[in-house]
Amino acid sequence: MLVDGNTNPEVARLAPAEMKQAIEISANLHTAVTKAYAARALRDLWHDKQIGGQTAGKQVVYHALQEAPNEVTSETFVTLDEHIEKAQGKLSSLQIHKKKVRMELAALHAKPLLSELCRDVDRLGRDQATTRTIWLTMEGNASMPVPVHMTRARAEEDWKHWKKHASSRARICRDLWRRCLDALPGDTAWEELWVWGIMVSFPALRVLIGDYAGISRIRRAPVTPIT
Questions:
Q1: Among residues 167, 163, 171, 176, which one has the least CA distance to residue 226?
Q2: CA–CA distances in Å: residue 118 to residues 1, 3, 49, 86
Q3: Rounded-to-integer distance, Cα 35 and Cα 26, Å
Q4: What percent of the chain has pLDDT over 90?
Q5: Whole-prediction pTM value?
Q6: Of these four, 101, 108, 169, 209, which has the most CB atoms within 10 Å of its CB?
Q7: Higher local confidence (pLDDT), 189 or 35
Q8: Nearest Cα to Cα of residue 40 among 18, 60, 62, 7
Q9: What is the pLDDT of residues 82-115, one digit of tens each?
């Protein structure tokens, strides 16, 4: 590179390669740093071994220092394997401990807490006191005389209720005996009809009733089921 007459004398003493690199650095920094200062700074850093440099003829190529790669030996691999095995063993132990803790927590959740038991005991005590108060009140009211008009009204209501049930059952009974008469011969006596009805209703008594004198004919005859 040519240098005109206005060039700094210190810059003129630089080697062409240093001058070129100094010009490039100065241009990249938009001339914020002079070419002479950039060339001198590079050379000082190289001499101080803060950067690297390689000479190729009249050129010096500067570069950043690179750390030597770490050599991985077999001992390093063995150490790493041991650490991995220890970590895996700790992990297995932690997992087993985790399962035990979960089981203990589940057992604790299944058992009621002391505070809950105390609360339930208090509630049961209050319920017992309330029930006893109601029972004493009802016992006291039971000894009190009931008005006559209330007793008579209740009795009439019960009588009407059971009278209705009795009428309904009497009608069902008449219909049942009518069907029985239709299924038996016309010369069957009422006593025999009564025994036959018991035999139909309670088959387990047929053997006992069959020994009764005078009803062997009914016992031998087939029993027609009521439809």
A1: 176
A2: 100, 102, 81, 49
A3: 6
A4: 7
A5: 0.25
A6: 209
A7: 35
A8: 18
A9: 899 999 989 999 999 999 999 988 887 777 777 8
